[in-house]
Design goal:
The chain has about 130 residues and is α+β, with helices and mostly antiparallel strands. Strands 1-4-2-3 form a 4-stranded mixed sheet. The longest helix is centred in the first third of the chain and has 13 residues. The protein starts with a strand and ends in a 10-residue tail after the last helix.
Length: about 130
Amino acid sequence: MEKNVYGVFDSNPELLAAIQELQAKGVTGTQMTVAADIKNDVQLGNEHTDILIIANQDKEDTLFLRIFHYFTDEGSGDLRSFFTKYGYSFAETKAMLKEVSAKKFILLLDEEVSIEELKAGHDKVVPIKK
């Protein structure tokens, strides 16, 4: 199953508002994935425990590890592996890793959710037929 990028958010409150808006339109938490640099930065509350959070690390890296990741152009592996698994190219993965390194959050949706319909303002999500 593919994961499609719904949006990139600068703050946790913006991310949470988008999640609540999607749920109001019929998207379930199990259809959502949040990508972040540090897992502990994602604060969704107890009502969103079914949303998958994927991150480079659970907490801040040491200075040495941050320097190492910068010069090797890679994270600790979790996000890079995740994006590769879902078919993103090297350039797409690099762009998304750059976003999360800047402390942004990426919200992804499962492929059966039509992002075009959501953004067009439909109230209920209609699964894509294959």
